[in-house]
Write a structure and sequence with these properties.
Blueprint lengths: L2 H25 L8 H13 L1 H19 L4 H29 L6 H33 L2 H10 L17 H7 L1
Helix pairs in contact: 1-2, 1-5, 2-3, 2-4, 3-4, 3-5, 3-6, 4-5
Bound molecules: fe (ii) ion.
Length: 177
């Protein structure tokens, strides 16, 4: 398996979902036209796949990279910290959307501000990885490194973009097709 290709595919998929999320956030200006259930599903996905599978895989790449190239330490530490921040931000946004879909009152401005902050943060995070981390890893890591990284991966399938779409994500999957 080509790990960089997989990470790149994940980024494209996440970008597609972020665009969907941002469209829904923009719709919140017009009362009642945002689909909070689907926004919740997007964030369910983010907390299940990117936060639990994609980021840990990148963390393994970063560890290897720093072993080979100490000058990558700062970049690596920044990205590791951002993974922790993202997990916190995505859980907070999911929690907010769960409250909305459970019928609780959450101020629209709060959802919109939290959603936009999350989307902007994740976007610039992925850009940093695309532009700096992945090219550096491609230049630096050996076949043996990639082999060892592959052994450390959690083999969890992508519940939206993988071979089988999980039941709870069916509606979201159909919407973004
Ligand atoms: Fe990433």
């Amino acid at each position: 398996m080509d790990i960089l290709k997989r990470l790149d595919t994940d980024h494209r998929n996440v970008t597609q979902l972020l665009e969907f999320l941002e469209t829904q956030l923009a719709r919140m200006q017009q009362i009642e036209s945002a689909d909070f259930g689907l926004m919740r599903d997007v964030m369910h996905y983010m907390t299940h796949y990117p936060d639990r599978v994609h980021h840990p895989l990148e963390d393994l790449v970063i560890q290897k990279l720093i072993e080979h190239d100490p000058s990558a330490q700062q970049l690596g530490e920044d990205i590791l910290r951002e993974h922790k921040d993202l997990a916190r931000k995505s859980a907070a946004l999911l929690e907010m959307l769960l409250q909305v879909t459970d019928g609780e009152m959450v101020p629209r401005e709060e959802i919109e501000a939290t959603g936009r902050d999350y989307a902007a943060f994740l976007r610039s995070h992925m850009e940093k990885e695309d532009e700096r981390l992945f090219p550096l890893a491609e230049r630096t890591l050996t076949n043996q490194d990639w082999h060892e990284i592959a052994k450390g991966i959690k083999h969890l399938a992508d519940p939206v973009f993988g071979a089988v779409v999980q039941n709870q994500f069916r509606q979201l999957y159909q919407r973004i097709q």
